[in-house]
Amino acid sequence: MNESLDDLLAGGGKTAKFETVGTRWSGVVTKAEPRQATNFDTGKPDFWDDGQPKMQAVVSIQTDERIDETDDGVRAIYIKMWGDQKKAFRLAAQAAGGSPKPGDTFTATYIADGEKPQRGFAPKIFKYEIQKASALDAIVNGTAPAVQQPVAQQPVAQQPVAQQVQQPVAQAAPVQQAVNVPQAGLTAQQEAQVKLLIGKSLEDDAIAAVIDGATPQAIQAVRLQLAAASSNGF
Predict the structure, then answer these.
(1) Residue 158: which pLDDT band, with cuts at 50, 70 and 90?
(2) pLDDT for the residue numbered 192
(3) Treating both helix axes as pointing N-terminal to C-terminal, what angle do 172-179 and 216-232 enclose, rounded to 10 degrees?
């Protein structure tokens, strides 16, 4: 067993059920992992005739579904790594540029029934969709350590900005000028995103890298505006 303590505490969530054609489950991925399939009759780990384990992908997503007070809304979607399900999963991964990762949005839809064999049930045909999280989503959700790491190494980078604004606080005119600094073409949405990432202690270059159209100069102007507003609050 390779489960960590966090895995045991988190649990695997309830299984997403696909009982009728058209059933659709969609949500943000909390976990995605390969797991050996179990034999339907015995409940034991399943193997191919050559002794190789039958594998499946288990994608856990966060949903709004709740059936009782202990239900956290997480649903596990099981995808066979063989046959039509594997083909559909591979197509989705190719279209998205990679397999689902935490923070991505994953959707599974039961679209039809396959040809019924002589014995057993007709196989269910699925369509899978993967929507990759943007760089901004990854930072906000805390799943982008590569971007945050430089900030942790340079915690004093914000100090010069604070000094530039705080030094002339005693002079009313310079502070007022900082408040009115134009935002260099940022939209209201971009400005809100910049303020959010400033609050997460990201540097100007790191913010500019994940918000299209935001230049370090425009971000600096927002930073000055926030600092001036904070000074006026005292």
Answers:
(1) low
(2) 79
(3) 130
Same domain, 150 and 179: yes
Contact 188, 216 (CB under 8 A): no
Q: Tell me which residue range forms the domain holding 228.
A: 138-232
Write out pLDDT tens, residues 81-106: 999 999 999 999 999 999 999 999 99
The answer on 173 and 115 residing in a single domain is no
Which domain CATH number covers 87? 2.40.50
Q: Is the pLDDT of residue 115 over 50?
A: yes
Asked whether residue 96 falls in the same domain as residue 206, the answer is no
The model carries a pTM of 0.58
Q: What percent of the chain has pLDDT over 90?
A: 44
Provide the domain count of the chain: 2
85 and 180 part of one domain:
no
